[in-house]
């Protein structure tokens, strides 16, 4: 098991050693590299970092042995990963991924982005950051600037406060009732885990039915709203990314409702979400996903948008990037006056067949697919589906 501890002056030489060893193993040292000159500058910089109150310079240990270096800065605006190096002997064991996931959870808890720089000649690191959901936001010399935000800014306190609409929309009894009924049936007397539990729209009534419910939630603002309805004892929640964070224990049911898997904006993240569900399930457990069917048949050639809803006081406009399978939903709310309020949410849409392949990659098979929670038959004209995936029993 790895651990992270504060670096001391006695670690300065090791920090230079592990950084140099990791870089050399990647074949990224220039032919004219002057090791003595580099080492002198790096060790001096490390001493300054140890004394810098704005920077946390740490040593990564595995089984009591020093194996890596971690440097993180924290500001009111962001968590900044300034550098992480692991000795080649301990790479590809998930240590780097686990550390970055912890930093993502920290950033999510504070409601700020996680930022970093990556050299363009370091494709291994770039692939890792792409897989973990980072996106390029700029360039700085020979480095790309990358940022991870997910729901840390989208699902903020203002959005969380007005998210619940008791008795209407997705909180209407004819929507919520069948959802809870079906999930209680699928839990089959066992524990349930909700990915992206939000304000507890589903979890609270499901727990009231006697199903033990836990959750994962990225947005602390949404979690704060849940806590006005149920405390940590009633519904335990772990803050973090649903594609990576672990919750203690084993479950018979994991569920992800109301299109939320599409909030993961890469195929890699969506596959990771399936795999994380599998890690939490007991043999034979179920993973349930509620998701809309992409509406590309309604998209005329050359037209980048569709009108999804046009009601008094509300219009939904979806704009598509068919190359990346991305869609941005633009929600316009307005009253009698001339002013309107706009909320945007980005998504990566998934075809049902692609969803089934993701499930297979994680060890699931499709058990059932219906058009809604009341088990209406799924057809070519169904706008959405509820899909139940089953993990192997052995």
What low-confidence regions span 5 or more consecutive residues with pLDDT below 50? Answer: none
Please tell me the overall pLDDT: 91
Number of helices: 11
Distance between the termini: 27 Å
Describe the strand arrangement of the main beta sheet, using strand numbers: 1-2-3-4-5-7-6
| CATH-assigned fold name of the largest domain | Rossmann fold
Write the layout of secondary structure elements.
Layout: E1 2-6, H1 12-25, H2 35-51, E2 55-62, E3 65-74, E4 79-86, H3 95-110, E5 114-119, H4 123-131, E6 135-140, E7 143-148, H5 151-154, H6 157-161, H7 173-187, E8 192-195, H8 203-208, E9 213-217, H9 220-226, E10 237-239, E11 251-256, H10 267-280, E12 281-292, E13 305-311, E14 314-321, E15 326-334, E16 340-348, H11 352-361, E17 364-370, E18 384-391
Parallel strand pairs: 4-5, 8-9, 8-11, 9-10, 11-12
Antiparallel strand pairs: 1-2, 2-3, 3-4, 5-7, 6-7, 12-18, 13-14, 14-15, 15-16, 17-18
Organism: Kribbella jiaozuonensis
Keywords: Transferase
InterPro entries: Acyl_CoA_acyltransferase, GNAT_dom, Methyltransf_25, MshD_Acetyltransferase, SAM-dependent_MTases_sf
Please provide a written account of the structure.
The chain is an alpha/beta fold. It has three domains: 2-113, Gcn5-related N-acetyltransferase (GNAT) (Aminopeptidase), CATH 3.40.630.30; 157-291 and 353-391, Vaccinia Virus protein VP39 (Rossmann fold, 3-Layer(aba) Sandwich); 296-346. It has eleven helices and 18 strands. The protein has helices at residues 12-25, 35-51, 95-110, 123-131, 151-154, 157-161, 173-187, 203-208, 220-226, 267-280, 352-361; strands at 2-6, 55-62, 65-74, 79-86, 114-119, 135-140, 143-148, 192-195, 213-217, 237-239, 251-256, 281-292, 305-311, 314-321, 326-334, 340-348, 364-370, 384-391. The strands form three sheets. A seven-stranded mixed β-sheet has the order 1-2-3-4-5-7-6. The chain has a seven-stranded mixed β-sheet with strand order 10-9-8-11-12-18-17, with helices on both faces. Helix 1 crosses helix 2. It is globular, with a radius of gyration of 23 Å. The mean pLDDT is 91.
């Amino acid at each position: 098991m790895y651990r992270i501890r504060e670096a001391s002056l006695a670690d300065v030489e090791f920090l230079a050693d592990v950084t140099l060893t990791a870089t050399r193993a990647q074949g990224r040292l220039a032919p004219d590299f002057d090791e003595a000159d580099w080492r002198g500058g790096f060790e001096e910089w490390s001493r300054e970092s140890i004394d810098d109150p704005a920077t946390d310079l740490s040593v990564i240990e595995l089984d009591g042995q020093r194996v890596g270096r971690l440097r993180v800065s924290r500001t009111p605006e962001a968590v900044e990963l300034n550098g992480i190096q692991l000795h080649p002997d301990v790479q590809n064991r998930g240590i780097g991924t686990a550390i970055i996931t912890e930093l993502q959870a920290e950033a999510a808890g504070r409601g700020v982005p996680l930022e970093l720089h990556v050299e363009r000649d370091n494709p291994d690191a770039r692939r890792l950051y792409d897989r973990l959901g980072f996106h390029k936001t700029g360039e700085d010399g020979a480095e790309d600037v990358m940022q991870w935000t997910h729901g840390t800014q989208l699902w903020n306190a203002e959005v969380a406060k007005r998210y619940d609409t008791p008795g209407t929309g997705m909180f209407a009894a004819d929507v919520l009732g069948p959802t809870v009924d079906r999930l209680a049936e699928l839990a089959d007397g066992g524990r349930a885990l909700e990915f992206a539990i939000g304000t507890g729209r589903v979890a609270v009534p499901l727990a009231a039915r006697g199903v033990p419910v836990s959750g994962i939630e990225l947005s602390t603002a949404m979690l704060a709203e849940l806590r006005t309805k149920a405390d940590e004892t009633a519904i335990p929640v772990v803050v973090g990314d649903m594609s990576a964070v672990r919750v203690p224990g084993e479950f018979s049911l994991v569920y992800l409702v109301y299109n939320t898997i599409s909030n993961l904006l890469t195929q890699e993240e969506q596959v990771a979400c399936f795999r994380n569900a599998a890690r939490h399930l007991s043999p034979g457990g179920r993973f349930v996903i509620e998701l809309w069917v992409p509406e590309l048949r309604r998209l005329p050639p050359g037209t980048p948008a569709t009108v999804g809803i046009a009601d008094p006081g509300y219009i939904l406009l979806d704009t598509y990037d068919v190359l990346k399978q991305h869609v941005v939903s633009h929600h316009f709310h307005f009253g009698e006056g001339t002013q309107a309020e706009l909320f945007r949410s980005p998504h990566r849409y998934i075809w049902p067949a692609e969803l089934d392949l993701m499930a297979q990659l994680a060890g699931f098979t499709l058990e059932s697919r219906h058009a809604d929670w009341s088990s209406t038959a799924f057809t070519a004209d169904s706008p959405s589906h509820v899909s139940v995936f089953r993990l192997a029993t052995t």
